Amino acid sequence: MTALGEEKLRKYTELRREFHAHAETGWTEFWTTARIAGILERLGYDVLVGRDVLDLDSVMGRPSDQEIAGFVERALGQGADPGWIKKMDGYTGAVALLDTGKPGPVLAFRFDIDAVDVSEAQDEKHRPFREGFASMNENAMHSCGHDAHAVIGLALAELLMEKKDSLGGVIKLIFQPAEEGVRGGKAITARGFLDDVDFFLGAHIGMGIPTGSVSPACGDFLCTTKFDLTYKGKAAHAGGAPNEGRNALLAAASATLALAGIPPHKDGATRINVGVLQAGSGRNVIPSRAVMKVETRGLTMELNSYVYDRAMEIVSGAASMYGVEMTMAKMGEAVDALSDEDLAGIVRDRAATISGLERIAPPVSLGGSEDVSWMMRAVQKRGGKAVYFVLGTDIAAGHHNEYFDIDEKVLDYGPALFAELAVVLAAGK
């Protein structure tokens, strides 16, 4: 027996596979956003997209305008609605609004929509390839389940419209771009969509929780700051005039080694990683340019600030030591967050009423970063409640793996649970 009915489950399974085939990474989700917006509009929602849902000053890690133009053309070539593409005006993401016209709370639901920078497996043991819905886009794959997240959000949108007469207040459905790299959540939050929200709900599928289970709360969000550094020196002949050069590679290498030496903090977990260091043009040339891609993490905002502030001292000092210029660009950022226990309790209680959900799993430790935290904290700061839970689904391989795939039963009980929570919260029960 299904929670949505066999017809709806088939429809949303097909839609998930359509999204899977059109995987688009952060800030390039033009086909995805257009498809989502078109469905939401047909359901009767007021729909905002692109620039209208983002604080542009808070956008991080977006490709260049020239690169974006290429992704827009790709989306149009794959059948994206030109009208919605025009409304986006170079930016992705969608927010759907439903004002019931009756008294009640403001509810917000968040679903991330971007893919991962992974090239999908192309062999018969991988079901999406075998059944013809593997990603058609190079180095872009839904290997974290955001295709399912988007579809769960759209299924919820349909269920809410069916239940509209029994709902009160205002409902906001947020389809967020660029979660990977924690680049998009802050921009939507800063635009003000969470300023009047009483209850906020988000979820992730998988994460080690099996099909038929739900974990009512997810915690241990690591705060993080992701940044790119560029050192600019002066090229010179390495044999004939090494004294005339200013070595950007040595500045970057010195910074890398010193960053690795930042001591851990007594108050909790901290992390730092230099993931990329690129420099030089030839063995006989003093390197004039070096690029580093770095991230810091901490269990709390204070702990992340400790690592980040020390890192800034180190990378600036390396620039001074080698006489080179340094520029820094922030590429992503997330804060810590905790689910409200009473709201997590409602998730646990209502899950027991949903067909297909048979087990309550223990709380999940995220062990990483998620920019839904910006939204959760914004709601909680003004006295609202927030929860982030896990919808279990068996997966074929780990998250961000080229063989990742899901048990599509989650497309049945996932939307049903969200809809049940919406009805309960809107009624003030």
Domains counted in the coordinates: how many? 2
User: What is the rounded distance between the termini?
Assistant: 27 Å
Helical element count? 12
- Gross morphology is globular
Which architecture of the largest domain per CATH? 3-Layer(aba) Sandwich
| Category from helices, strands and their pairing | alpha/beta
H-E order: HHEHHEEHHEHEEEEHEEHEHEEHEH
Residues in β-strands, percent = 15-25%
Catalogue the unreliable spans: none
CATH superfamily of the largest domain: Zn peptidases
The helicity comes to: 25-40%
Kindly identify the CATH topology of the largest domain.
Aminopeptidase
CATH class of the largest domain: Alpha Beta
EC number: 3.5.1.-
GO biological process, one term: folic acid catabolic process
Pfam families: M20_dimer, Peptidase_M20
Keywords: Hydrolase
